[in-house]
Give the backbone structure.
Amino acid sequence: MCQIIANELYDKWKFVMTQYDVFNGDADGLCALHQLRLSEPIDSVLVTGVKRDIGLLANVKATPGDSVTVLDISLDKNRIALDVLLAQGASIHYFDHHYAGETLPQHPQLEMHIDTSPDTCTSLLVNDYLQGQYLPWAITAAFGDNLHLSARKAASPLAYTESELQALCDLGTCLNYNGYGSSLDDLYFKPTELYQKMKPYADPFVFIREEEAYQVLKNGYNADMVLAGAIQPEFSDAHTAVYILPDAKWSRRVSGVYGNRLSTAAPERAHAVLTALPGGGFMVSVRAPQSNKTGADELCRRFATGGGRKGAAGINLLPESELDLFVQRFRQQYSA
Ligand SMILES: [Mn+2]
């Protein structure tokens, strides 16, 4: 009898409860969500945006009993909205590796998996949580976040060939590439659309072989990279290099992954890739030297719309009037 009542209550509760999946629109956010929902398929309301659109939690309005999963967006940047959701009675499951603020919130309805060390990413944290159930997708995401060593280390139990590793690296890079842009119009696929395309594939190698969307992304990526490669640096020396890309959709799409490529090619040097925006000013991607992954987040946070991680960070809108100041601070940060 009790069991029957419990089941009825559970069904009723299940009926009114909404699951929100809030995720960064880059490779790491997509692969984190994909792993979780492969493991626990639930119909959910998807909340995401371009990679730079990180104030995502404010878009969720919860009622008591709702459940919110948050993936790969800074808790620091979402702290106010998080407190509001907890006060509304939602339970929250938070996975992230970005700067989380001076102190972490504590609440019985909040479960956090946060690790801001520069060699991990959200998908690797989710992989730990799921005890390696969908490891190939976590490896893909680590490559996408330009964490090549971490990706290879995570892959070691799978004994992949070099060409298999390269295939996951290309996949991560292309999924990541799709997240950049100053608005959804710049992207080949809206991140929700790309996630729906990934959803049927438990195995990334099958996605690579069979999914047409992947060919679209790969071709777009290759074409954009050729255009970026033709741009000379504004400035470069042994420690730093600054590139300015023109106001075009391709530059906004390629800005972050181009920064990653420059960084991988010259690991001792810090890189800044600035992209001119249609309304004036620049979108900025900063990559700390791979040999010393520090300070990119601190540098960017000194500007009003900056944020990110120790090794890779950005500024959403750098006013033209602050260009010189930025270059000066960037060079100062990495001069020695
Ligand atoms: Mn990430």
Q: What stands out?
A: The chain has a mean pLDDT of 93. The pocket of manganese (II) ion is lined by residues 28, 72, 97, 121-122, 145 (CB under 6 Å). The domain at 2-220 is CATH 3.90.1640 (inorganic pyrophosphatase (n-terminal core)).
